[in-house]
Each structure stands twice: as C-alpha cells, then as structure tokens.
Design brief:
The protein has about 475 residues and is of the alpha/beta class. The chain has helices at about 20-35, 55, 80-90, 110-125, 175-180, 215-225, 265-280, 285-295, 295-300, 305-320, 325-340, 395-405, 445, 450-470; strands at about 15-20, 40-45, 130-135, 135-145, 145-150, 155-160, 160-165, 185-190, 205-210, 230-235, 340-355, 360-365, 375, 380, 425, 430-435, 485. The strands form three sheets. Strands 1, 2, 3, 7, 15, 16 and 17 form a seven-stranded mixed sheet that branches. A hairpin with a 2-residue loop joins strand 4 and strand 5. Helix 1 runs parallel beside helix 4 (about 110-125) and helix 1 (about 20-35) runs parallel beside helix 14 (about 450-470). The chain starts with 13 loop residues before the first strand and ends with a strand.
Length: about 475
C-alpha cells in the first residue's frame, strides 16, 4: 500500500538533512542555534541509533583513535577545547589509560568523540528542536516548490530545504580481486564493518591493499587482537601515513598570497618552504598545517585542469602528510616493522587467484620496474579509500536525483558539483536554490573538506546560508527549482 506524503507544515518550513554522521549532526546543531525553534522544523535522516557517529565515530574498536589531539577537536569552532573539556567533565577517559601520551596530549578513542557529539544533540532531540528519523532514505524528488523524501519504512515527508550530508561510499574492489575472492572466508572488502576482521586467525598471513589511514587502523586492530602472522601492506606508491610532531610549532609558510596557479608551482613552493622551515628548526608538520589552513584559498586559485593534476599526482602525498596517525597506532606499526612482522611495498596487483585450500596467490608488480614477485596469503583486506567513481550510484536517493539530471559529479571527480554557497549545480549548470551539499562531498568546490575542523566550519557555513534564506523567504511567485549563476 502506498503511504501518502503529508503536506508540509505551512507555519514552519521543513529542513531535511540526509545523513546523520558528524556532518549532518553538526549542521543540525548549528542550524538549531541560528534559528528560533518555532520558526523551523529540522529533521535528520540517519539509520544509526545516535546522531554524530557515522562511519568514523560509530566504532566499538578500542584501538580506533582520533588521529589529532583532542584539544583540536570540537563541534564548536569558536571553542577549540570543547571536546577535551567534555572528556574531563564526564570522566570519559577513566577506562582508557592509553589515551594520554607521556607529554600530555590526548588521543581519545573515536567512539568517545561519537558519544560527545550525541551528547550535544541530546537536549535538542529531547525538546523536539531536532528530530531524528531512524530510517534509510530511498527516494528524493522535486515536489513542486519543495522536496519529497521517501524512506525504507514507508514514511514520507515534504521538505522546503534539503541537505545532502552523506559521506563517500566505501572502497571499491578492483574487478580482479572481487572475481577471484568472492565468498572467500577471509576476504574483507569493507574493513569499516563491525567485526570485519574477526575471521582472520592469529597466525594468518595478511595482505592489506592500501597503505593509508585505514591500513594503519587495520594493522593496529590486528595487533591488539593478538595477531602474530606476517602483514604485508601494498599500494601503488607504498606511502604510509606519517605521525605527529607534538612539540609546539606555529604553522609555517605562506601559500595563498600570492596563490600558485599550477600544481607544479605549488609543489615546488611547498618543497622550498619545507627546506626553509628545516633551516629554522621547524619540521614539515608546521608547513602542512599552514597548507591545511589555507587549503580553500589554494584550491580556489587553481584552474580546473590544475586541480585535476593535483588530485591525480599529488593527493596521495598530501594525504599521508595531512592525515597523520595517532601515536598509539604509530607505536603498533613501528613495533611490527622492527620485529619483521610487517612490510610495506610500492606495487600494484597484477594477478589474484584462490587456491583449493583457500590460500590467496597474488602477483605483485613493483612500481619502479623490476620483476613481478609472488606472495601467498591467508587473508586479504581492502583499504583503498573511498570509491569516488560510485558516489552517485552508491545510494538510491542520490542515484534518483542523478537520473533526473539534478546531481552531477564535480569537475574534479571528488564529489557532487556545488556552487560557492554549497548549493547543488544541475546538469544545465544552474544552482538549485533549496538543495545543498554539506561535508566531504562538496570538496570539489571547497577543497580541503576531510579534516574535522574544516568539516565543522563547512557545516556551520551551510547552516548560516539556510538560516539566511529562512529569515528572508523568497516570494511564492519565485520558483524554488533553480537560478543560474555566472
């Protein structure tokens, strides 16, 4: 039976947020602080029990730690120590003796940050200022001057303003791996699933495809579970995420005034700045901190062709320096390396096959030439990062909007095309007045939108845009479909 969609409330415009991970929760929180409760209805669609967890923070794995000090994590940009203060006030670290480093920096478990976000949203949920609809959205479509939302539980809603706050899809396995290992008991296609590594036995030889942050988490989790078998991590460049320098350093360098106009010029500038920093006794960490802070200005100054070059050739190097691992995770990796139980290789997978005893035979082709070499493994874990190519097909609600010509991939291939106000740009190049993207899927336009401080600021940015529209609604004679930008 078809469930009729209720008419939107005339007295209160409805803002619907699709996705209640960190981005969606932060957006709801800030919008609730900008608009009077009686002036708007805020509805967040998220299947998980709590808002704010998402893929990153909805984890029970004790070794999954935030990869920056707690003093730099906050839901409120103007209160940088908000999360660390909450940890102290609530005693959230009482059962986590390893959270604090010898020099006093706190690298809390990711689950603690998830609880922190949920705690900030709880009063808003209890009062009804924010509503949490625990269902997956399966359909989105224009409904006159509004948006119709359909969920898997059959409920429906018509919203005046719609925000897509979903994240990137999970890793996408190369076709050769998927064909060879489908059904294998120790082939882990998505390591973010709960208990994803449970089938791996203590002495198994493990191949991890990918060497970044996800691979680091996998290594640390296996190590904590008592795994003693050999681990091999492989990626095309063999780059692994770097650790922190926790000594006090101010961001070093200048990259926005004047901005670089090519990816090559930016790379040369970064290398020169690192050399100058080292001459002054400052490590590369401070240079990348400045790059991160100026990331939006740097990105906007690059032509589209140069943005593509940067993504294609330089992003892997940026990722391993920008997204650093917690000291506790770094210690586990260094320990395995020192005992010979862990190897990193710069190579690609030339062939994968499954033998009758479930051994996984892999042929690896070194990056810099040389003879391919073979390895035998008992388990293979995919850690290749987001599957950018499947963004629009990863969820039915996004696929439907894409088929209607409303959504398109941005011109760099990192997410969804949006304008400078983070409103969706349709296939005709027009901005959708009441359809926004918040969070990492807007990074093709905004640049650095993966680190939490930048995601927080972007959520606040979108909330401010929506609040401004709510304060000055457009006349009913003006269509909500779109209007063209230059």
């Amino acid at each position: 039976m078809t469930v009729p969609f209720p008419h939107k409330e005339l007295a209160r415009p409805v803002v619907a947020i699709i996705g209640g991970g960190f981005t969606g929760a932060a957006l709801a929180y800030h919008l609730a602080g900008l608009v009077r409760a009686e002036a708007v209805r805020i509805v967040v669609y998220e299947p998980r029990a709590n808002l704010g967890g998402g893929l990153a923070y909805d984890t029970a794995e004790p070794v999954h730690r935030i990869n920056v000090p707690a003093s730099r994590m906050s839901l409120i940009p103007s209160e940088g120590s908000h999360f660390q203060d909450w940890l102290v006030e609530t005693g959230a670290l009482d059962d986590d003796a390893d959270a604090t480093t010898p020099d006093g920096h706190v690298f809390a478990r990711r689950s603690a940050f998830g609880r922190y976000i949920a705690a900030q949203l709880q009063p808003l949920l209890a009062s009804g200022v924010v509503e949490h609809h625990r269902a997956r959205v399966v359909g989105l479509a224009p409904a006159g001057k509004a948006w119709r939302i359909e969920t898997e539980d059959g409920a429906g809603l018509v919203a005046d303003h719609l925000v897509l706050a979903t994240s990137h899809p999970g890793p996408r396995a190369p076709a050769g791996i998927e064909r060879a290992l489908v059904g294998h008991p120790r082939y882990v296609a998505d390591a973010t699933r709960p208990s994803a590594l449970a089938a791996i036995r203590p002495h198994d030889r493990v191949l991890i495809v990918g060497t970044g942050l996800t691979a680091a988490d996998i290594i640390a989790a296996l190590d904590a579970a008592g795994h003693s078998g050999r681990i091999t991590a492989v990626s095309r460049r063999g780059l692994r995420s770097r650790g922190h320098n926790l000594l006090p350093q101010e961001p070093f360098g200048e990259f926005a005034d004047p901005p670089s106009r090519t990816a090559g010029a930016l790379l040369r500038r970064v290398r020169r700045t690192i050399a100058v920093a080292e001459a002054h006794g400052v490590t590369w960490h401070a240079v990348f901190d400045r790059l991160r802070a100026q990331g939006g200005d740097i990105w906007r100054a690059l032509p589209v062709s140069e943005r593509r070059r940067l993504v294609r050739f330089l992003r892997p190097y940026w990722d391993v320096h920008r997204f650093r691992i917690a000291p506790q995770v770094e210690a586990a990796i260094e320990r395995r390396l020192s005992t010979g139980g862990l190897d990193f290789h710069a190579a690609s997978l030339a062939a994968v096959s499954r033998e009758p005893d479930d051994t996984i035979a892999v042929t690896l082709r070194p990056r810099r030439g040389g003879q391919p070499f073979e390895g035998r493994y008992d388990a293979l874990v995919l850690a290749t990062g987001p599957g950018h190519g499947s963004i629009l097909s990863s969820q039915p609600c996004l696929a439907g909007l894409a088929e209607a010509g409303i959504l398109q991939i941005d011109n760099v291939g990192l997410g969804i095309a949006v304008d400078a106000d983070s409103r969706v740009i349709d296939k005709d190049g027009a901005s959708m007045r009441d359809l926004y993207v918040a969070g990492p899927l807007a990074r093709g336009t905004f640049g650095e939108l993966m680190g939490l401080p930048q995601v927080t600021e972007h959520a606040l940015f979108v909330a401010e845009r929506i609040a401004a529209v709510l304060a000055h609604p457009v006349s009913e004679t003006v269509t909500t479909a779109n209007y063209r930008i230059d």
